[in-house]
Design goal:
By secondary structure, the chain is of the alpha/beta class. Helices cover 32% and strands 15% of the residues. The strands form five sheets. Strands 1, 2, 3, 4, 5, 6, 17 and 18 form an eight-stranded mixed β-sheet that branches. Helix 1 runs parallel beside helix 15, helix 10 runs antiparallel to helix 11 and helix 15 packs parallel to helix 17. The longest helix is centred in the last third of the chain and has 21 residues. It is globular. 48% of the residues are buried. The N terminus and C terminus are likely disordered. It binds ligand NA7. The site of ligand NA7 has 23 residues, from helix 6.
């Protein structure tokens, strides 16, 4: 830890309670860890959280079946040996209630709640050029200011509803029974037993929710427009003995995660796809399909991501698995994606998802054959018939990556709007800074390493780098920093270039900014949201910038500006 130096890093000594050295927006996985690093330095900081409590993703997503697709022990924070020693992950892929308990445990253990303010919706954040500060306006009417603004808004925190008659963009609909987006699943228990339930959407969320709801509902009707390629999660319990073994291996586990492109335990196969026989490849895929987690996606031949032939062969293998698992061959075909190959969109991991369609109480409506016309007071009208429901669940995804930014009126130097600058997609330096927006750092922002990796692994890298930059600022007495336009252009071009090699660039998923419910995000458009170079390469680049004393960033101090230095 660097010594707290100048410029407002002394404990709580702001000029008024509404003026902070640092404001963090968001108390999820990223905001919690960033606050830990600032508290450690005695920085006068606060975390503003829109929700009524901390946890971000794990606070909001309470739908049945919600759980990690990351191995739990690779998802936890790695910064504290004591924490690693104390926490017992009870399942290999832990469920939402436990994940939220974990984040609360971390916040309590490090006494971080004292810095957090809940039910705080930031409406606007304007950079005041003269004062060199950010000025925030909150929905509760308060005005706050800070020298440095750090966003920890989450990648998927702006849920979107289907753009169909009977539903408004804010989720209000004409349906008379309960209906909600999976992101807004209520905290109080929702009765599913004995109910006729509709789920719209078959992304990673829908796939988890459908399998869990199918076990309880009197009848579940799934409204699917495009199927996704899913693979088995193979969850299991972690006994106290196994947890002891994991604890003893933590250093190795985190080292391995740091070496892999995705930040997981799953390491790509180095042998070339074309250097082994079709039989060998099939044997490898059988093995991976039977193993827990993302192995079938991330511990596969690297060619599956950029070589059409390799991808088609793997897709055919997975399609056969779906055919084996689904009794009705017509349903099986409907569940097999025909418009994209395996792994070019986010692969949902599932627990008995395909078997759910063998249940007598579950049916599938193919929206490509019979599209939804409207939501009605009692159910859903398709082009073919009216379905009556007691509960409608919208698993219809998010305005990913930039959606949470768009909800806040960010204005940088000279009043420039971030929403205008990012109209056609994000433009950033390392996914953490934006030219024209001084003193703003976007933790796990678009085009950063976190977006395409096992999230907390990426977050720790980002938070460490941001904290290092802040130390540099304070140690040198700077009050303002801003990424150079050239460096920003170079980074964004690099991110775009990485896409050009990937089959993913043609896919309709949130990695490319696709969302049929938002103007300008429909099929055929592309946004360069994620960094595809892999976590090790990302870390090398950001370390290089830090080691070079941030040559790509312009720093200044008030005293120098005023000519009194
Ligand atoms: P996704 O992966 O964006 O999936 C959204 C799903 O909702 C997808 O199947 C969409 O079908 C469907 N959808 C969206 N709008 C409609 C309308 N209007 N009509 C019918 N179907 C619709 O979001 P998830 O929440 O599942 O997953 C997000 C991430 O959370 C995931 O990647 C993990 O990282 C965790 P479409 O593909 O548009 O045909």
């Amino acid at each position: 830890m660097a010594a707290a130096a100048t410029n407002g890093t002394s404990n709580g000594s702001a000029d008024s309670t509404n003026d902070y050295e640092v404001i963090i927006i968001g108390a999820g996985v990223a905001g919690i860890y960033q606050m830990y690093r600032l508290a450690e330095r005695g920085v006068h900081a606060t975390v503003l959280e829109m929700g009524s409590d901390l946890g971000g993703t794990w606070f909001w997503n309470r739908y049945p079946g919600c759980r990690f697709d990351s191995e739990s022990y690779t998802y936890g924070y790695s910064f504290s040996d004591e924490l690693l020693e104390e926490w017992h992950w009870k399942e290999r892929f832990s469920g939402q209630p436990e994940n939220l308990r974990y984040l609360n445990y971390v916040a309590e253990k490090f006494d971080l709640r004292q810095y957090m303010q809940f039910n705080c919706t930031v409406e606007s954040a304007h950079f005041d050029d003269e004062a060199g500060k950010w000025r925030l306006h909150l929905a509760d009417g308060r005005d706050l200011s800070c020298r440095f603004l750090l966003t920890a808004l989450g990648l998927l925190s702006a849920p979107t509803y289907p753009r169909i008659e009977g539903v408004d963009f804010d989720g209000t609909d004409v349906f008379e029974g309960p209906s909600f987006h999976t992101y807004h699943w209520p905290a109080e228990p929702v009765e599913i037993k004995g109910k006729r339930v509709a789920v719209i959407g078959t992304g990673a969320t829908g796939v988890q929710a459908i399998a869990a709801i199918g076990e309880q509902a009197e009848h579940l009707t799934v409204f699917q427009r495009r199927p996704n390629w899913c693979a088995p999660l193979h969850n299991s319990e972690i006994s106290p003995e196994e947890m002891s073994t994991i604890r003893a291996r933590y250093d190795d586990i985190f080292d391995l995660c740091a070496r892999t492109p995705g930040g997981f335990e799953h390491e790509p196969i180095r042998t070339g796809f074309h250097n082994v026989s079709a039989e060998e490849r099939r044997a490898m895929w059988e093995k991976l399909y039977g193993e827990p987690g993302f192995g079938i996606w991330m511990a596969n031949y690297r060619e599956i991501f950029f070589d059409e032939e390799a991808n088609a062969e793997l897709s055919a293998f997975i399609a056969d698995k779906i055919r084996e698992r689904v009794d009705d061959p017509v349903i099986a075909e409907k569940l097999i994606p025909k418009d994209h190959g395996f792994g070019v969109q986010r692969v949902p991991l599932e627990t008995h998802y395909y078997e759910t369609y063998n249940r007598p109480n579950v049916s599938l409506v193919d929206l490509q054959e019979t599209p939804i016309e409207r939501i009605t007071p009692t159910g859903i009208q398709t082009s073919d018939q009216h379905y009556e429901f007691d509960l409608i669940v919208y698993a219809t995804g998010f305005d990913a990556m930039t959606g949470a930014f768009d909800r806040i009126d960010f204005r940088g130097s000279g009043g420039q709007r971030l929403a205008d600058k990012w109209k056609d997609g994000p433009i950033t330096f390392l996914g953490m800074m934006v030219n024209g927006f001084p003193n703003l750092l976007t933790i796990a922002g678009p085009q950063s390493g976190s977006a395409s990796t096992n999230y907390p692994r990426g977050i720790e890298i980002g938070v460490e780098w941001i904290t290092g930059l802040m130390d540099f600022v304070w140690e040198n007495g700077y009050t303002r920093f801003e990424a150079d336009a050239d460096a920003e252009r170079e980074w964004t071009n690099h991110v775009i270039e990485m896409y050009s090699m990937m089959l993913m660039r043609k896919a309709q998923g949130w990695f490319t900014g696709y969302n049929s419910n938002i103007d300008g995000h429909e099929a055929g458009t592309i946004r360069y949201f994620v960094y595809n170079g892999g976590a090790p390469k990302y870390k090398r680049r950001i370390d290089e910038v830090a080691d070079g004393d941030y040559q790509e960033v312009a720093f200044s101090s008030e005293r120098a500006l005023a000519g009194t230095a």
